[in-house]
Design a protein that fits this description.
The protein has 491 residues and is mainly alpha-helical. The chain has three domains: 2-122, no CATH class; 133-217, no CATH class; 257-447, Orthogonal Bundle (hpI Integrase, Chain A), CATH 1.10.443. It has 19 helices and five strands. Strands 3-4-5 form a three-stranded antiparallel sheet. Strands 1-2 form a two-stranded antiparallel sheet. Strand 1 and strand 2 (29-31) form a beta hairpin. Helix 1 crosses helix 4 (84-101).
Length: 491
C-alpha cells in the first residue's frame, strides 16, 4: 500500500504543478486537493496521523498548542533524516491537512500557517545520505589522498584550511584527470564539505557554498586523449607483448643449511621481538614443511602440532588438518634452548596471534615477514629467501632422511605422492635428520594417491655396464701397445 501511496503522491504532485492550483488573496498558489482520489486522501490522513504521533513521542515535553503545526515545524527542520521520496510523501500529506485547516479565502497570506504551507511546497528538508557505509568510507579515503597530494605539491602554502584549499586546487586542475576520476573526486570532496557545513546555518553566498555548487556543476575539464600514429600503436603493442613474455620469478626452491642457520643467527642477534619471532618461524617451517598460511595458524595440543589445511578442496589436500606428533622432541630435540619445550611452543603461537592483530591479519603478517626475510637476505648477501623457501627445504630434508613419497605426502598434507617428488626440493639440497623424530598417523598413508612416476632404470644400468666394459677394453689396449713397441725395439 505504501508503494502505491508514493507513486500516487509523485503523480499528483506533477499534475497539480501544471493544473488545479487556486489563487489566494495574497497572490500565493496553493495546491488543490479536490482532484485527489478518495484512497489517496485517506492514505495521506494516515501518514499525517503517524507523523503527529511520532512528533509527540520524540517531544513529550512540548506544550501541545497545535499538534499539526508543531508536527510541520518538526518535519521541516528534520534535515538528512528521510529519503527523498519519503519527504515528498510526508510533505504532500501535511500540506493536505494544513490546507484543510485553513480558510482558503480568508487566511492572512503573511500568517505562520501560510508560511508553513509555502515551505511544504518549496522549502522541504534535505534528504538523507543514501550511500552505504562502505561507500562513505571509500570517499573519505579518496579525500585524504587528495589532501595529501595537494600538500605534497604545494608545500609552501600556509595550511589555513586543507580541505578548502584542496577543493580550490581540484577545481582548477583542468586536463589533469580522466572523466570518471573527476566524478569520483568531486563526489568525495562534496561529501566531506557537506559534513563541514551546517545545512541550516551557513550563508548561501559564502565561499563554502560557492565551492559546494561548483563541485556539483562546474567540474574541471578532463584530460583529452591524443591520437596515436600507426607506428606509435605498433611500438606500444610490442612493449605490451614484451611485458607479457617476462617470466614470473618462482620462489627459491633450494637453500643450503648454512644459509638457514645464518638467517636464524641474524634474526636472533636483533633486539626487537618481531625478529625473535621470525627466528622461531624459520626453525619450525624448515622442519615441518607446512605452507606459510598453515604455519601462522599452528597450535599445540599436548604433543601434537595441528593447523587447518589451506588446500583441502577439490581433492588437492590429503585431509582438512595438518598434523604431526612431536613427542620425541620433548626429550631429544634442541629446537629451542629452554627446559620446557611446550611452553616455548605456546609462547611462539601466542606471539603469532599478537603480530597478526598488529599487522591487520594473516595477509599483512605474511607480507611483513617476507619483507623482513628479503632485507635479511640482502644484508647476509645471499639469494633472496621467502616463506615458501622453507617448505621446499623441509621437503628436501625429508627426502634426504629416507622418508618414502607417501610418508612425505602425509607430513606435508599432499593428496598424492607425486607432488613433492616432482615439484619440490631435491634430495641433494636437504640435510639428513633422525627419521624417528617425526611421528604421524599411519592410517593416513592409506589415503595417499599413488601418482608418482616410476622409472625403469634397467636400460640405463645396462647402457652404463656396456660403457664401463668398453672403457676397460680401451684401457687394456693402451697398456698393450707400449709392450709391443718395446719388444720391437729389443729386436
Amino acid at each position: 500500500m505504501i508503494f502505491g501511496i508514493r507513486k500516487a503522491s509523485t503523480t499528483l504532485a506533477n499534475r497539480f504543478s501544471l493544473a488545479g492550483a487556486t489563487a489566494t488573496p495574497g497572490g500565493q498558489d496553493v495546491l488543490a486537493s479536490s482532484q485527489r482520489s478518495a484512497d489517496t486522501i485517506v492514505a495521506y490522513e494516515r501518514e499525517t496521523s503517524r507523523l503527529v504521533a511520532q512528533c509527540q513521542r520524540e517531544n513529550p515535553n512540548d506544550a501541545p498548542w497545535s499538534p499539526l503545526l508543531q508536527t510541520v515545524h518538526w518535519f521541516l527542520n528534520g534535515h538528512a533524516r528521510w529519503a527523498g521520496n519519503t519527504i515528498r510523501l510526508y510533505a504532500n500529506a501535511l500540506e493536505q491537512e494544513v490546507g484543510r485547516m485553513l480558510e482558503y479565502d480568508a487566511f492572512d497570506p503573511r500568517s505562520e500557517e501560510a508560511l508553513l504551507l509555502r515551505r511544504l511546497k518549496t522549502d522541504r528538508p534535505s534528504p538523507s545520505n543514501q550511500r552505504t557505509a562502505e561507500a562513505i568510507a571509500a570517499y573519505e579515503r579518496e579525500t585524504s589522498r587528495l589532501v595529501a597530494q595537494y600538500q605534497r605539491e604545494n608545500p609552501n602554502e600556509a595550511p589555513w584550511s586543507p580541505l578548502l584549499q584542496t577543493v580550490h586546487w581540484f577545481l582548477n586542475g583542468h586536463a589533469r584527470w580522466a572523466g570518471h576520476t573527476i566524478e569520483l573526486y568531486a563526489s568525495a570532496l562534496e561529501q566531506e564539505l557537506r559534513k563541514m557545513l551546517e545545512y541550516d546555518a551557513f550563508d548561501p553566498r559564502s565561499e563554502e557554498a560557492l565551492l559546494l555548487r561548483r563541485l556539483k556543476t562546474d567540474w574541471p575539464s578532463p584530460i583529452t586523449k591524443t591520437k596515436t600514429s600507426k607506428k606509435g600503436k605498433q611500438v606500444a603493442h610490442q612493449k605490451k607483448v614484451a611485458a607479457k613474455t617476462i617470466k614470473k620469478t618462482n620462489p627459491r626452491k633450494s637453500i643450503p643449511v648454512s644459509e638457514v642457520r645464518e638467517l636464524v643467527r641474524y634474526f636472533r642477534s636483533r633486539d626487537d621481538e618481531f625478529s625473535n619471532w621470525i627466528a622461531g618461524y624459520i626453525i619450525l617451517a624448515s622442519r615441518l614443511g607446512w605452507r606459510p598460511g598453515e604455519m601462522l595458524i599452528l597450535r599445540r595440543e599436548r604433543h601434537f602440532l595441528r593447523a587447518g589445511a589451506e588446500k583441502h578442496t577439490n581433492g588437492r589436500g590429503l585431509t582438512d588438518t595438518c598434523e604431526i606428533d612431536i613427542g620425541a622432541y620433548f626429550e631429544r630435540s634442541r629446537l629451542f634452548k629452554n627446559v620446557c619445550l611446550g611452553s616455548e611452543f605456546d609462547k611462539w603461537t601466542a606471539d603469532t596471534r599478537k603480530w597478526e592483530a598488529h599487522y591487520g591479519g594473516r595477509v599483512g603478517l605474511q607480507d611483513n615477514l617476507n619483507a623482513h626475510l628479503a632485507r635479511a637476505s640482502k644484508e647476509c648477501k645471499i639469494k633472496r629467501v621467502c616463506t615458501y623457501t622453507f617448505r621446499h627445504f623441509a621437503i628436501s630434508c625429508l627426502k634426504a632422511s629416507g622418508f618414502s613419497r607417501a610418508e612425505i605426502a602425509v607430513i606435508v598434507n599432499h593428496a598424492a605422492d607425486g607432488t613433492a617428488a616432482e615439484h619440490y626440493g631435491k634430495r641433494r639440497d636437504g640435510s639428513k635428520r633422525a627419521k624417528k623424530i617425526w611421528r604421524f598417523d599411519m592410517a593416513r598413508l592409506l589415503l595417499v594417491r599413488a601418482t608418482a612416476r616410476k622409472f625403469d632404470r634397467s636400460a640405463a644400468l645396462s647402457k652404463k655396464t656396456d660403457a664401463e666394459t668398453k672403457s676397460i677394453e680401451a684401457d687394456s689396449n693402451t697398456i698393450a701397445e707400449p709392450e709391443e713397441t718395446h719388444s720391437m725395439v729389443m729386436r
